[in-house]
Protein: Receptor-like serine/threonine-protein kinase
Organism: Triticum turgidum subsp. durum
Amino acid sequence: MVTLSGGGDLVLLYTARDNVTVWSSNSSAAAPAAVAQLHDNGNLMLTSEAGAVVWQSFEHPTNTFISEMRTGRDLRTGAVWSLSSWRDADDPSAGDFRYDMDTSGSPELHIWREGRKTYRTGPWNGVRFSGIPEMTTFEDMFEFRFTDTADEVSYGYRDRVGSPPSRVVLNESGVMQRMVWDRATGAWNTFWSGPRDQCDSYGLCGAFGVCNVVDAIVCSCVHGFQQRSPAEWRMRDASGGCARRTPLRCGDDSDGFYALRGVKLPETHGSSVDAGASLEECGRRCLSNCNCTAYAASDIRGGGAGTGCIQWFVDLMDTRFVDGGQDLFVRLALSDLENTKTKKFPAVIATVITGFALLALLIGFLIWRTMFDDILRGECPTYHLEVIRAATGGFCPKNEIGRGGFGIVYKGEMPDGQEVAVKKLSTENRVQGLKEFKNEVALIAKLQHRNLVRLLGCCIHCSERILVYEYMSNKSLDTFIFDPRRHATLSWKKRMDIILGIARGLLYLHQDSRHTMIHRDLKAANVLLDEDMVAKISDFGIAKLFSSIGDSQDSTVIERIVGTYGYMSPEYAMDGLVSFMQDVYSLGVLLLEIVSGRRNQRSFNLIAHAWKLFEENKSLELLDPAVHDGCSLAELEQAVTCIQVGLLCVQESPSQRPKMAVVIPMLSHQQAPRRPLRPVVCTLVSTPVDLLDVLDDTSSNVELTITNIEGR
């Protein structure tokens, strides 16, 4: 219970424990509050009888700040407005990460983990933070507000009129996310997140190092510098940074500046800022000060090279290339600069000679960038490979919990104790797996539903492609229903809850999601169970994305047949026709498997068996004997309904199968199912053909034929 105490404090009481105070605003020391009011912008304010603000929630954020809030410092009172992450997704107590404003140089935002800096935005340059060029793409939705006065240094934003609500969250993994509410889907969409890749990891390339995420080896030294420890760099540890090739002499015109273009400016801690100086004056000042190592413009609002002056007097730390980055002028000995000039002519010749090679590389990069642009734009949080390695014990075989055509799945534990499932792309299946990887990231990152597995993040590091999911402690459905030692633990009530969960998840994919899609590989192994046995559909690597909700008859033809034998619809297996009805067919097979506890396979045609019993009015003989005796009459009726709906879903013609919007009311006894027609079944013959990517227990290359089921 929240109440205003007699002393004028806002207090949260635990009524189940004799009104123990859980939290207090502790504001009465300033002045007793008389009124508590929640304003339209979300700010909860306590005011005195005189109308003075005693306390307000906007100055005490937790892990989120919204429109009209701010983060920064009050230089008069010493108050700090910062964010703290939650302990985990379900525990709002303070976690390991903090997000605040550093005002010791040119103001910039930092993320800290237990006192160690993990990320910085780069300094404010009058338009945006220099390391977040994406901010300029948000200007039509948000009005950014940056204050730098003698009294206050702060950053905030305001939603523009007509724009949807938004929020900025520091999540439990230490990632900042800008979220925007999508009214059409009723979900929060991620517009930006940071850190977004390994180059955003603070100090990755050390002093005078520069990071470029598009390079195979992301760290390099600024021109005029060399690796301080080549042995460490060979081991991909560049944190020791770089050292000058030629010492600075200072004076006698012995130094100059090298222009490092398009970068996030280095950390400004200990730098000096003069907003009134020109860039030319800034360069002269730096050259006249023997301790100055670099300079740059502090304000780019006027266009061109910018105005204002930032001077660095320490090693340049945490520099990276970004799209639309700023120019940084690094001090070098003239001999290093002259070396650059003498090499210009050979460089031009080399450029002409290798022009076609460079063009080919550019095309290759554009293809790569296109494949991963969803990830690079921050569609989901990213993890460093080192974090993933540590979580899985170096991808230790004992932590392996599954494998498939995509690769191997490992159980892992993140530094905060959270258990995760880590899916690592196999090197043997790199071409196909890479496409699946892109699909999973682009699709799952946009999905939010109780019955879909949650994607926590991804990792792209050189040749490594990794997905990180929430860990499902009860693993997959097939480990229960097909295991003679465990299937009895699934009562009919649990099986019915699982069936309805799968159906709701599929309905979301087909109809309720903003990006409607086809799963194309729905099967028992791709239904995961959490600790409460809640069903969650997983493995969207071969999902077919549809741009809009269409009629269930709409279909497309594909050349590459992918899926699992026993779950593929006839029109897909034989002709490559893809539609929402393909998933409905797979659901029908899955319903029959859950009811019976038996697998549809070559040695036992479950659909034919179910139809035979249905024709003879003996459907209950299909029910798993392990649960039959424990069922009530109502539950036995549910089982018969599930069998009938399952047979409807495996009808030969897609037009004869029910849509998912109809399946759920039938399963819930809100609508009576019609009588199914005799289905047809995909069966194996002995002659193998090149049917791509069809998974089976014993063979991956099979031929399928259509067989009519005749009743007896």
